Amino acid sequence: MEVEESSSGDAPRIGRQPATSNAQLSHLGLQLFIERGFDATTIDDIASAAGIGRRTFFRYFSSKNDLPWGDFDTMIASMRAYLFALPRTSRCATPFAPRSSSSIGSPKTSSSITASGWTSC
């Protein structure tokens, strides 16, 4: 049995190295979905292409439906943290800020942060 340093640096990880990653499985799964179609691609097909067993697949994803999304929840959390850290004045200065017809040509002058971290301009 191998002992290796963990990525967090806390304690050594005992066992063999991971055979794959979420990103690798997502990539392989998406390739198979493109080639065969989502419904025609089985978890066994994806696991076989990755060189892992069916049970190992479920350590990475809870279902085939989760595979195309990758680590979407982490990306969303990261994006929310980034947007929330922006200065208040720049939160309304995006091309995505809604504008009413009466505000065209006149800059927004006030903004307030809501409980969710978004602003109402």
CATH class annotation of the largest domain: Mainly Alpha
Task: Kindly report how far apart the N and C termini lie.
Answer: 59 Å
The CATH architecture of the largest domain would be Orthogonal Bundle
Q: Any low-confidence stretches, pLDDT <50, length ≥5?
A: 1-6, 101-112
**How many separate helices?**
5
Described by the principal axes of the CA atoms, the overall outline is: flat
Return the CATH topology of the largest domain.
Arc Repressor Mutant, subunit A
- In total, the number of strands is 4
Give helix and strand order, one letter per element, not per position. Answer: EEHHHHHEE
Sheet bearing the most strands, described?
Answer: 2 strands, antiparallel
Any idea what the CATH superfamily of the largest domain is called? Homeodomain-like
